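ok so I'm stuck.
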Amino acid sequence: MHYSDRHDLWVLTRHSDVSAALLDAATFCSTRGISLTNERQKLPLLPTMVMMDPPEHTKYRRLVNRGFSPRNVQELEPELRTFVSGCLDSLLEAGGGDFVAVLARPVPCFVVAHYLGVPAEDRMLFDGWTQAIVQANAGGNILSATDALGELYGYFTALVDRRRHEPGADMVSALINADPESLGLTTEEILGYAFVMIAGGNDTATGLIGGAAELLAGHPAQRRRLSEDPSMVPVAVEELLRLTSPVQGLCRVTTRAVHVSDTKIAADSRVMLCYGSANRDPRAFGDDAAELDVTRAPKRVLAFGGGPHYCLGAQAARLEARLVIEELLRRCPDFEVDAERGAFADGPFVRRYESLPFLPRAA
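replied:
not stuck anymore, here's the structure
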């Protein structure tokens, strides 16, 4: 437990404390914002589910849960593997390059565009808006991406109107066809869902993919085990999630006085939940918790949060990481990355490489 005078907040770092707070949304609420500020940020694309609590959050989340079921996610695998392979082709043909720009960033953007039903011919526009919004969001001031937000708002307003007449197998169409008597979603509310997908589904998965490449390149013996037995990759993804923790932490505000680890936290206190440290807690993962072990098969990893706000796109992120790792190990198992020359993106919450030099060394 730590109290920060600078930010006027409590910091929880133990796995047990962070996990308990995530499960207790009635005490550790999200409706007053999940950032370091005391005011709920005013966005042009509200509402966003990340700043709701049950029962309101439950109603909105139920509408999109089905689209992210394991079965629906797996149906994306053939198309996504082809896309990953194409990105890797570019890296190999160039003899190396920026792993983030060519692979770790485009893959999550492709997945988000797929779920939102963005037509292939509009992907380049969407990619540009996404990058601007992700960078602004990571820096804690999403409103600085004024042009991108305005253009995205206009684009999705038109897309929503199109899907009202030409529905597809995407999230926007599913929301339009939701039971109007239960929520009666407006265009603005549907845009709120799109914003959550864009702001939350891109930089986090980019962080996982880039961080995974760094860890595997830095632990050749561990990587070799995966190359020799690719069936281990799904288990390894859980370990890589644990160590990378792309979302290092988020905040909550207490609705009542509560005791945590024998310390009393008053009502209306802001509390930072540190997922990154919780995922390296020796009490939860053993004395070697700081080390990479692709056979560990860790349980209760908090990389996707927990409780009502458990990440909606968790299965999609796992798929993205698995396919990237499988293709890397199949086509260039001895790849290298230059972590010292890599650069991390700004921002207090998401840990991700902004750039990461890559050398194939294809077998």
